[in-house]
């Protein structure tokens, strides 16, 4: 006996209601219960109905009624007009047209639908399988990267141990060298003290002999001075130098006597990640505003991106603030800068750098501590950036702002000064407005010189390659280059403060386009994130615009 659930699945209901079916209309191919037979016949009075018990039903095609000839069924299909036709149509308006039996047409189309349904089911199965495969790949990828992260942490511990071993060995070597030299000095000191005591006794005896009148005291005297003449009064103990060489993010080497240790790091910039290679991108015809961020800083100074969704920014107070793309304050750093830093940047490792005019220092925020580089007396810091090699480029001016220069620092050492051209003339025009500096991918040094209303680009030796004065952009007001950055395409992007726009040049100074359709009121600060988007700070409103300008 069938179960209740199986019986319910096999139950066929009336097509007009939910009651169990009892009869079947062969003419209309409709299942009917006893109560719906009259309703069905009444609704279709013009049709002939062949109603039989359900078990005696005959399945057949139900042809549609002809729109042109009442009471006629369309049992054919006009091949020429591609429409259903009845017998009267064939002898009338469709006379002479090729007509095919509708049953054959339906059967043929059902075969096509069947094949297409099978193909659809195949793709459903294939997509489901592909989805499952991707799920597995996601799972495998996640596990592999988790394992990689765990391995990274293990390597961190091992490397930390290695570093500890290096410096333990270094300290041990220093102590041994110190102990050996102290032993030499103390031994000689002890010898000098003993010799001095003996010489004092001899001196006393000699003075007694000199006072004596006994011949035997004098004739029996034997000199002991020769034993002391060869004792050196000074000992030359050489102290070895502890030499080190640090190239930030690349190499650390230490040398003391015969002991040498070196740590080297080789890395590829995250901008060449295999998932998103910006170097194949090009300028969009129309830029897009991705976000408008209220920084809460008025007026807003310079900004610099961290990663792809955060930015450091400052105004005219002592704080440097870390702001997310959603506008939330993630962190802030208190400085000693009375009216805000002179400029900010980040190292290749993402460490914040800021310039303090009060103390004439470049400050690196490294693991919660501040490391400083002090500028020479008489010079005031203006702009700064960190190069790919880990050097700092620092622009500075004299107290009266009559003279500007750019200095390259390697650690605490000034390696290069840029201020004169090949003719001995000043490269930068003096005045109230600052000089901001940036390194391009080809090692060119790019700088704004707002006092001369120009951007100046020099090669890495400091030789001027070209100047850009804003003329090709044909703006209404004079060109006012406030700040600049370079991108992955080696393009130079400049904020034009007075014309509410950005100028984009190629690496050789050729004008490419002007961005003036993003509501950039008084643009000052400018930075490029890891996704290749521009972040532009507006001076008065304090808003930061995030702009998509590359395809």
Provide the gyration radius in Å.
46 Å
CATH superfamily of the largest domain: TolB, C-terminal domain
Low-confidence stretches: 1-9, 267-280
Per DSSP, the total helix count is 6
Beta strand %? 25-35%
Structure class: alpha+beta
What spatial form do the alpha-carbon principal axes imply?
elongated
- Write down the domain tally: 3
CATH topology of the largest domain: Neuraminidase
Assigned CATH class of the largest domain: Mainly Beta
Number of DSSP strand runs: 33
Could you report the average pLDDT, rounded to the nearest whole number?
Answer: 86
CATH architecture of the largest domain: 6 Propeller
Helix content: 25-40%
- How far apart are the first and last residues' alpha carbons, in Å? 70 Å
Q: Could you state the oligomeric state of the chains shown?
A: single chain
Numbering strands along the chain, what is their spatial order in the largest sheet?
Answer: 10-33-32-31
Major sheet summary line: 4 strands, antiparallel
Any overview of this molecule?
This protein is of the alpha+beta class. It folds into three domains: 9-62; 154-266, no CATH class; 281-550, TolB, C-terminal domain (Neuraminidase, 6 Propeller). It contains six helices and 33 strands. It has helices at 4-10, 37-43, 87-91, 102-211, 215-219, 226-229, and strands at 23-25, 30-32, 51-53, 76-78, 83-85, 99-101, 242-247, 251-256, 259-264, 283-294, 303-306, 310-314, 319-324, 329-334, 344-346, 352-356, 361-366, 369-374, 379-386, 392-398, 404-410, 413-418, 437-439, 445-449, 454-458, 464-468, 481-486, 492-496, 501-505, 511-515, 523-528, 534-538, 543-550. The strands form nine sheets. The chain has a four-stranded antiparallel sheet, with no helix packed on it. Strands 11-12-13-14 form a four-stranded antiparallel sheet, with no helix packed on it. A four-stranded antiparallel sheet has the order 15-16-17-18, with no helix packed on it. The radius of gyration is 46 Å and the shape is elongated. The chain starts with a helix and ends with a strand. Mean pLDDT is 86; it is low at 1-9 and 267-280.
